[in-house]
Amino acid sequence: MSSDNSNMRASKKKVSCKKLGGYLKEQKGRLYIIRRCVVMLLCWHD
Q: Pfam family example for this protein (predicted)?
């Protein structure tokens, strides 16, 4: 029973790492878009 429990923990850990990776990728994309917008606003001359 204890080995079954540790397997469950390991699989949960994998899922959480995958979710975390996806979350970080999403935040990285958002930061890139925000940075591009800020640069455009700063460099924009009328």
A: DVL
Task: For residue range 3-35, list pLDDT tens digits in order.
Answer: 555 445 545 555 577 788 899 999 999 999 999
What one-letter code names the amino acid at 23?
Answer: Y
CA–CA separation, 14 vs 16, rounded Å? 6
Separation in Å, CA 26 to CA 13, 30, 35: 20, 6, 14
Q: Encoding tokens for residue 43? A: 């460099």
Distance CA 1, CA 26 (A): 38
